[in-house]
Predict the structure of Alkyl hydroperoxide reductase C.
Amino acid sequence: MQNRVLNVGSRFPEFEKLATVSLEKGKEFETVTNTDHQKEDQWMVMFWWPKDFTFVCPTEIAEFNNNFDEFRDRDTVLVGASTDSEFVHLAWRKDHEDLRGLKFPMIADTNKSLASELGILEEKEGVAYRATFIVDPQGIIRWVSVNDLNVGRNVEEVIRVLDGLQTDELCPCNWQKGEETLQPA
């Protein structure tokens, strides 16, 4: 039985997960929760990838990291996640040059409970789809995008949608930050 993906307007599930946050000895892991971003009245972008030590995933993770300041400038906490363990995340970060300097946590959903609750667990492989959730400061999902396992996402589009959501205005097709929004007649 396939889970349904949590959609726009749903409350983001409660979670408390161990995450890889550093390569520094003794400071590698921290607990991350669903309410961490709410304490600072911030948005959250959580993006999922299927597996560590693969090919498409590090391109996405590195691109999110390259845009870390763009998210921070928008009062948005960036969080990555997969069903791999915190130890696998740490080993991958140490092994892959593009992942050594990550500025955001890599959540380890080893029991697959959060991926399952979000409805993004691919049943045959038992891994998460490439899913992205934009969550507002009240913990409500405002945007969801799910890609097939083989296709990487567009980080610029995530930022564009975040910008649009944060205007709380009507944004036309292909709208970019700084452009006029629509005004109802």
The longest helix spans residues 155-167. The domain at 10-152 is CATH 3.40.30.10 (Glutaredoxin). The longest strand covers residues 76-82. Residues 29 and 122 are 26 Å apart (CA to CA).
